[in-house]
Each structure stands twice: as structure tokens, then as C-alpha cells.
Specification:
29 helices; globular; two-stranded antiparallel sheet
């Protein structure tokens, strides 16, 4: 699908291969086929291998071409993939605990999907209720664990590390496509995965903060509360296996595929071109189920690149008798050619994306977003805040555009004047959003930020797009303009809520800003290399060295803060993220319950345990087994669209089962929520008073004690299929 890519798409095949494998498993599950036993998953994997061998043997890539490709790109592609994966794997080995933050919730999801064999799924933190969350990314990770048989507690840490390799490989493919330089693609991809923001060094140098986890945490809490932003390397170090983190390699790959369409638009009507556009559409549509925010952001990126892709005219316009070209004929040829090409691209890219997004919508069961509007004055962020987050990218982009623009201004030709007029038109489009905000009576706009972003968009058009520059520079112009425009949109407008709009929208801002900055510095370096000025070359080398050093020093501090963090009494050097459980007095007995359930319950079962505040000890059994529970962390279940009435009803049911002496009510609730196991430990006794301990031991018609570890016991209900005396009284 990528014959025009220097490496024939080798670097992009990693994420694409994962997508084809896992998405196929997902589609088969949605169609009603069960993944139980792993046979179907293995069959899909083997089928992909056979398809690859068939494609190779049928002449898509000859033996000599394959050898040449591996000889030229193999070490760099595999080096960036394995190198970044091992780097983050070592960090996970030194600090492997799946503990604190939202890692327990992510582990719940991962364990649930390894257990789960049918779709659409229930919500593991609201057993029996349909899941209303973009879970497909964690499903992909679970599909790999099902294929390999790796345990969830180890697979979690492996997934975090491998995501870094996937991101790096796809960035390599994108940079190689635009620059054709292996050395640059390798170094730029690695730097972008490892890049840090300026805030960390500002806190350390100017505020005297020590290099600790608290400083590392504070470096992402820059914006006006409740907004914040967690960039790529920070997220990989923090190790939350969230949807927005899993989505990163897919968004980079989608961008690279769109870049292939953009720079190789002349082969759009070939078989390769059609296949590429279908793949782009399907992967773009899949973002709807992986991380819906990215479907919106990168849908705009793909749409812009497809619409702006160059089109070769179908015929030359006729000339007048004196040899001149009739302007109206030129316009007719151009408009007709572009219209046909745009319709053609929309048929394959748009239709493929629409079909897969519709399919994911059915399988994901997302509820309609509630809430949208304009941001008001107290919620605006200052320009200084943006510099503290995007400062390095802003420095590189601004300096690069100024350097390249200075050379163009000297030309002072008619083409330059037309380029300036075009830049002003583009800037006017960017200013439309803030002017609409002002028209609504919203005052005190963040004008400094708006002015900067507007100027950057105009400069990118003038310097990189106008004057008939190369298609690679035009791609860089789009890569500069989109994040600048997104900054304005996410600052002035919110969807669902202010926090998620900025947090999730800035995942695209950060990645596209990094990509565009790297490309601009490459173009600057290429221009300077042709210069005769040794002083200019030396100054550029110093600038690049400082630019790289700032990023890497910040990341080194982040790595140090992460590795020295000790949240458990005994440090384990392992990839098993749950190895710490037996070491904590409050979780020692729970660890034994978890081990028993993981050993004896292979499929699905509903577990009843104590409910309480998020980020604390509650919902711990579900977290480490993947088994659904009646109610998990309330804040997160509310975010997934569950109503207050629904949550209140479940909280009352949990309390009634533990504290009510009404056996009829207890039996009714056990059947209603299909409860298989009941956990009784110190947490349950302390949070459900008066606790009816006698009820569970004196009524074998309802409960059977399975196992006891210290003060924690596990009961199986009479209605559970895991009870040896199973007698179904469940509702149909």
C-alpha cells in the first residue's frame, strides 16, 4: 500500500499489523463469534501470516527488494522500536507497581477483556450494565495477551513499554517519508518520544524545587484548574494504560498514512492508491472506538491533507493562437480535476472511515455527548502558561520560520506579494473563532496566545506553502497550522467539559507541534548546510544541541523522579505489577483472595466488595482480577454516563447485602445483580455498619464459604454456577 515510501511502509507495518490483527478479532467478536479458548485468535494470527507470505510471493516485493530494504532500513527501524521499548521496559522493571493514579482502573479493564469473550461488553465497574466508554484500545492489548498467554500483571507493563516502540517506529516512517534521511528520521523519532516540556526545568531552576515525584507531577499541572496536560513521555513514565495513551501510535500512523496520500497523490487511481486510502479510512474510523477525541482531532488532520493533496490535471488546457493560455480554461481544468479527485478520495477514505466508525459505535455503545459551549473569562489560560508547556516547540518553530522567511522576503517578487496576501487570508480564517467569541459578549480574550497562533499559521503558509514549494514543505505547513488552530479552538470552545476538551485535544497539539518543529529544523539545517557561512553553521549546531539537551535533561529528571518513587514498603525488581500486594498489611489477605480467584475462575463472574471513594482501597478485588463488581469508583462510572439514580441504587444494594438482616431482600438483590462471589474483609466490615456477619455463616441456602485467609473470607452464592450445588435462579 506504500510503494512510494522510502522504506515501502516497513516502519508503519508494526502498528498497522497490530491493528489488522486486533481489529479483525474485534469485528469477529461483534459479529457474535466467541474468543473463548483462544483458538479463533490464533487462527486470525496465522491467517495474517499466510496473507503476508502470499503477498510477498505474488510479487509485491521481490527477494532482492526485500534484502535491499532490510539492509538499508532494518537496523534503524528495529533499533528505534526495540530501543525505545527496552528503555521504558527498564523503567517499568525498576518501578513496576500497578498502584496509585488510575492504573488500577486500567488494570481492571485489561484483566476484564482478557477474561471477556463476547461483545459488546458490560462495564466491569457496573456489572450487568453496558459499557459506555471507548475501550477498543485496551481490547487490542488484551488480544495480544490472549494470543501470547502472558499474564495481565506482566502484560500491563509490557504494553506500556511496547507503546513507546510503536510510537517511535511510526514517527520514523513519517519523518523518513518527508525528509528521506535515515539519520534524521531515527533521531527525530527518538527525541519526540522522549521530549519533555519546559515547566519541569523551570520548577527546578527558578523555583528551587527538588527532583521528586511531586515536581514531576506539578510539571503537567500548569493550566487553570481543573485543566492539565500530560505529554507523551510523561504519560509513558506515569504508566496509566489509558485510552488516550494507547491511541498515540495509532494517531501517528494515521498521520503518516495521510502524509502518504498527500505526497503521493498522483497514484490515487491505482490499486496501491485505493488500498492506501481504504487503510487510512479504516484506521481513522477505528479512532472512534480507541479514543473518540482523537477521531475528532485527527479526522480534521486527515481531511485537510486529503483535500489539499496535489492533483495532476487530466489534460492540458488549449492555448490561444499566440501561444498564451486562456485563464478560464485553466480554471475549468483545475476545478474539474480537483472535484473528481476529491470525490474519489472521499469515496474510499470517507466511506471506509464512516463504515468502521459506525461499526465501532455499535460495539462501543457510546452515549451521546452532553454539553458544549464557549469558554468564559475565568477559565482562560495565559500566554505564559502555553510557553511553559509548548515552549520548546514554540522556540524551534518560531526561529525556523523566521530564518526561512527572511530569505523569502529578500526576493520581493510578485510571487512573494501573492504569498503574503494568501497568508493574510489564512490568518483571517483563524481569527474567525475568537471574533465569534467576542460577538457573544465574552471579554478578556487570551489575545497574546491568539495573536501568536494566528501569526504562526500565516508564517507557515507564506514560508512553507506559497511560492510553489515542495510537497514535503507543504505537509510541514499543515503540521504547523493544525496545532496552532487547535490551541485556539480548545481555548475558546469546550465539548462535554472544559477539562477533557483541553486535555484530550492537546494530545494532538503536542504531537503535531513536535512533528512540525522537527521538520522545520530539518529544512533550516538543509538550507544552512548549503551556506558558505561557517559562523551560521556553528550557531545552528549550538542551537540544536541546546534544543536537544533541554528535552533530554528534563526527561532525565522525570525518569529519576519516577524510578526513586517508593510507594510500597519493599521494592520489587520485576515486570509483575502486582508483586507488591503480599507486602502490604492491608492487601496481604486480599492478595490471596485475588490469587485464588485468578486460579479458579477462568471466565466471567460478578464479585461483590466494598464501595467507597476513588483512588483509595476500594474495588481492589475487581482491579486485580478483572472480574466485574457491582459498583467501582463512582466518579469514573459517572463520567461513563451512568446516572446519579443508577449509582445511588447500587450503593444502597451493596449496603443492604452487607448490613441488612432481611434475607428476602438479600436474596432478591443477589439474583438481581447476578452476584457470584462476596468478599468479606476489614474494608467491608468498616464501611457497612451494622455488619451482619452471622447472616453469611448461618444461611447456607444463600452463601457458602469458599476460602478464608486471616480475617478475609470469600463466599460463593447459591445462585452461582461456581457453586458445587448450583441451582439457577437467575433471571433470563
Amino acid at each position: 500500500m506504500a510503494p512510494n515510501a522510502p522504506d515501502r511502509g516497513y516502519s508503519l507495518s508494526k502498528v498497522t499489523g497490530l491493528f489488522v490483527f486486533a481489529a479483525t478479532c474485534w469485528v469477529l467478536s461483534v459479529c457474535g463469534l466467541s474468543m473463548e479458548g483462544g483458538l479463533l485468535i490464533k487462527a486470525v494470527f496465522v491467517l495474517i501470516l499466510i496473507s503476508g507470505a502470499w503477498g510477498y510471493r505474488s510479487g509485491l516485493l521481490s527477494v532482492s527488494e526485500l534484502r535491499a530494504l532490510l539492509s538499508r532500513y532494518g537496523r534503524s527501524v528495529e533499533g528505534i522500536f526495540i530501543g525505545l521499548s527496552l528503555f521504558y521496559l527498564v523503567i517499568r522493571f525498576l518501578n513496576p507497581e500497578i498502584f496509585w493514579g488510575e492504573k488500577p482502573m486500567d488494570l481492571t479493564f485489561l484483566g476484564f477483556f482478557v477474561r471477556n469473550h463476547q461483545l459488546p461488553p458490560q462495564d466491569p465497574w457496573a456489572a450487568g450494565s453496558p459499557m459506555s466508554y471507548y475501550y477498543v484500545g485496551i481490547y487490542y492489548v488484551a488480544a495480544l495477551l490472549k494470543l501470547t498467554g502472558i499474564s495481565v500483571s506482566i502484560g500491563y507493563n509490557l504494553a506500556i513499554a511496547t507503546l513507546a516502540g510503536f510510537i517511535g517506529a511510526s514517527l520514523y516512517g513519517l519523518f523518513l517519508l518527508i525528509t528521506k534521511r535515515v539519520w534524521f528520521a531515527t533521531s527525530a523519532a527518538a527525541l519526540l518520544v522522549l521530549a519533555s516540556d519546559p515547566e519541569l526545568l523551570r520548577l527546578i531552576i527558578f523555583e528551587g524545587k527538588p527532583i521528586t515525584f511531586d515536581t514531576y507531577w506539578a510539571s503537567t499541572r500548569v493550566f487553570t484548574p481543573p485543566c492539565f496536560f500530560e505529554y507523551t513521555s510523561w504519560s509513558l513514565l506515569f504508566a496509566d494504560l489509558h485510552a488516550h495513551v494507547i491511541a498515540i501510535p495509532f494517531t501517528v500512523t494515521v498521520t503518516a498514512l495521510a502524509a502518504l496520500v498527500f505526497v503521493g497523490s498522483n497514484d490515487r487511481f491505482t490499486g496501491h492508491g485505493i488500498a492506501l486510502r481504504c487503510l487510512l479510512g479504516v484506521m481513522l474510523g477505528s479512532l472512534f472506538g480507541i479514543n473518540t477525541w482523537d477521531f475528532i482531532s485527527f479526522g480534521g488532520v486527515v481531511g485537510l491533507l486529503v483535500v489539499l493533496a496535489s492533483v495532476k490535471p487530466f489534460w492540458e488546457p488549449p492555448r490561444n493562437q499566440d501561444g498564451s493560455v486562456n485563464s478560464s480554461e485553466v480554471v475549468l481544468v483545475t476545478l474539474f480535476t480537483r472535484a473528481v479527485a476529491l470525490v474519489w478520495d472521499l469515496i474510499f477514505v470517507g466511506a471506509s472511515a464512516g463504515v468502521i466508525a459506525w461499526l465501532y459505535q455499535r460495539g462501543v455503545n457510546l452515549k451521546q455527548a452532553a454539553g458544549w459551549g464557549w469558554v468564559v473569562d475565568p477559565e482562560f489560560n495565559s500566554f505564559h502558561m502555553y510557553v511553559r508547556v509548548l515552549g520548546y516547540w514554540m522556540l524551534g518553530t518560531t526561529a525556523g520560520l523566521l530564518f526561512l522567511g527572511a530569505k523569502k522576503i529578500k526576493l520581493l517578487k510578485i510571487e512573494s506579494a501573492l504569498g503574503l496576501i494568501g497568508a493574510l487570508c489564512v490568518m483571517a480564517v483563524v481569527l474567525a473563532a475568537p471574533l465569534m467569541s467576542v460577538a457573544r459578549g465574552i471579554g478578556n480574550q487570551p489575545w497574546a496566545m491568539i495573536a501568536y497562533c494566528t501569526l504562526i499559521v500565516g508564517a507557515a503558509y507564506f514560508v512553507l506553502w506559497s511560492l510553489g514549494e515542495s510537497v514535503e514543505r507543504k505537509f510541514a505547513a499543515v503540521a504547523v497550522a493544525v496545532p496552532a488552530y487547535l490551541v485556539i479552538i480548545t481555548e475558546l470552545f469546550y465539548l462535554i467539559d472544559r477539562m477533557n476538551t483541553l486535555f484530550k485535544g492537546w494530545m494532538a497539539v503536542w504531537m503535531l507541534s513536535g512533528i512540525s518543529t522537527m521538520l522545520i529544523l530539518f529544512f533550516v539545517g538543509s538550507a544552512i548546510s548549503r551556506s558558505q557561512s561557517k559562523r551560521l553553521k556553528q550557531a545552528f549546531k549550538v542551537f540544536v544541541a541546546l534544543f536537544v539537551a533541554l528535552h533530554l535533561v528534563g526527561t532525565a529528571c522525570n525518569v529519576f523522579a519516577t524510578v526513586i518513587l517508593k510507594r510500597v514498603p519493599i521494592r520489587h525488581y520485576t515486570l509483575n505489577g502486582t508483586a507488591f500486594l503480599p507486602d502490604l498489611p492491608q492487601t496481604k489477605e486480599d492478595a490471596q483472595i485475588v490469587a485464588w480467584l485468578n486460579e479458579n475462575v477462568k471466565g466471567m463472574a460478578t464479585v461483590l466488595e466494598a464501595h467507597g471513594d476513588p483512588y483509595r482501597e476500594f474495588t481492589r478485588i475487581s482491579m486485580y482480577t478483572g472480574l466485574p463488581t457491582i459498583l467501582g469508583w463512582e466518579h469514573h462510572t459517572r463520567q461513563r454516563g451512568l446516572s446519579a439514580e443508577f449509582l445511588t441504587e447500587r450503593k444502597k444494594a451493596i449496603r443492604a447485602i452487607y448490613s441488612s438482616d432481611d434475607l428476602a431482600l438479600t436474596k432478591e438483590l443477589l439474583v438481581k445483580y447476578n452476584i457470584d462471589f462476596i468478599v468479606i474483609g476489614n474494608i467491608e466490615r468498616a464501611n457497612n455498619r451494622p455488619f451482619q456477619s452471622e447472616k453469611f455463616d448461618e444461611h447456607p441456602e444463600l452463601f457458602t464459604k469458599v476460602v478464608t485467609f486471616g480475617g478475609t473470607s470469600l463466599y460463593v452464592t447459591y445462585f452461582s454456577r461456581y457453586n458445587k450445588n448450583y441451582k439457577s435462579e437467575r433471571p433470563s
